[in-house]
């Protein structure tokens, strides 16, 4: 296999069968040693974060595949901290799609004039461009279409998939008495079928979850969901 | 009449007949003495800027009213540098609506990963929140609706009006060999009819215009359009 990319939280290898292998690292995004799922930099290394991330991702992707929701997931090897995935084409140079159930993070930083911290949001979906240099700017449906990144028809699918998947995660967390505030996804086009599918991961590092009003750290979240 | 508001580029007075009087100042937005229509601060004072802004605004608002496009304009008094307008209710605490024909300014700062400077844009419309503290963040149709600022039906009207008015201004400028790159509008609801109408002004301070590839300063633009 061939190493093709070193990401902030994962290494990516190309396999001989045409699929890809994602190796989960213990690095998580954040700023100055404080975890922040919305951050663009590796803020800290948490021993066990990679394994916890992979376990949760495996759990959720298997659940989604059972429900017939397209994802890139093929299989996971917990011991090796790797996940085998189908090849995907990203939208442009990559987008992040956020689904928000409560106002926190960058939503509040942008719209604090109209929103209170923690106020309920109706599965609100927004898209940001993956562009570290320009701090991941939000982008509208019209701009995505105009710049040739995503057609209007694709945007509709993306938004529906996002709300559906976020709803499933929210429901799973609720079973453990945990409330999902927001979650970030990445999508791509299946290289074989061109179908839009969920890629990347679903882990504590991609969401903000609270229990009894207290924020839950990614590692703790994995324990609560898988062992709790 | 009663002074009710001191804006960056205008003073606002309430008249006894229920209408409002806008007094145009010579202050223009910008940073460190350099004019920038997208800036949030008064960058400099240009003698004659207020008068030039009022003259252009009168010219365009009269043209729009002739074409049956709703605006708040009633009449202008060039000598007093004032304009009488109908009362309007802003959307939330105020929105700015931008129509872009070429990629410059904040569009390029945000989407430079996908756009070249000066690249044609198809009368692209975006909305930003008037919020100096948070640097006028862009906001999507979905967020405007969710936060109760603007309904989806109103957004549709706003976008159509914006493209229509920007198209008229673009055409007027083209008659003088000038190309409109982008323009910023403000809208409000007519307090009597609840109809969405154009408010504020249309002047050199709200647009970027170029002639033979050279940017035209606001005062020069007024001369080229009204005297050229």
Task: Explain the overall architecture.
The structure is a homodimer of 228-residue chains. The first copy, chain A, contains 5 helices and 16 strands. With 228 residues, chain A is of the alpha+beta class. Chain A folds into 2 domains: 2-87, Phosphorylase Kinase, domain 1, CATH 3.30.200.20; 89-227, ATP-grasp fold, B domain (D-amino Acid Aminotransferase, Chain A, domain 1, 2-Layer Sandwich). In chain A, the strands form 3 sheets. In chain A, strands 9, 10, 11, 12, 13, 14, 15 and 16 form an 8-stranded antiparallel β-sheet that branches. In chain A, strands 1-2-3-8-7 form a 5-stranded antiparallel β-sheet, covered by helices on one side. A 3-stranded antiparallel β-sheet of chain A has the order 5-4-6, with no helix packed on it. In chain A, strand 13 and strand 14 form a beta hairpin. In chain A, helix 1 crosses helix 5. The longest helix of chain A has 24 residues, at 152-175. Chain A is globular. Chain A starts with a strand and ends with a helix. The interface between A and B is medium-sized, with 29 and 29 residues.
């Amino acid at each position: 296999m061939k190493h093709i990319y070193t990401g902030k939280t994962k290494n990516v290898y190309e396999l001989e069968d045409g699929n890809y292998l994602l190796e989960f690292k213990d690095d998580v995004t954040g700023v100055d040693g404080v975890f922040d799922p919305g951050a663009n930099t590796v803020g800290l290394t948490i021993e066990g974060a990679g394994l916890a991330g992979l376990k949760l991702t495996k759990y959720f992707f298997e659940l989604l595949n059972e429900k017939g929701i397209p994802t890139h997931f093929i299989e996971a090897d917990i011991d090796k901290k790797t996940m085998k995935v189908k090849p995907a084409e990203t939208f442009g140079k990559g987008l992040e799609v956020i689904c928000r159930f409560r106002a926190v993070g960058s939503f509040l930083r942008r719209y604090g004039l109209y929103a209170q911290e923690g106020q309920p949001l109706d599965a609100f979906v927004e898209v940001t461009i993956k562009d570290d240099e320009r701090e991941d700017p939000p982008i509208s449906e019209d701009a995505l279409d105009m710049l040739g990144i995503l057609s209007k028809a694709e945007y509709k699918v993306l938004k529906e998939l996002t709300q559906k998947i976020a709803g499933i995660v929210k429901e799973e967390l609720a079973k453990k008495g945990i409330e999902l505030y927001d979650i970030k996804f990445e999508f791509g086009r299946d290289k074989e079928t061109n179908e839009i599918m969920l890629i990347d991961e679903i882990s504590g590092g991609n969401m903000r979850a609270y229990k009894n009003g207290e924020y839950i750290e990614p590692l703790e979240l994995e324990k609560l969901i898988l062992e709790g």
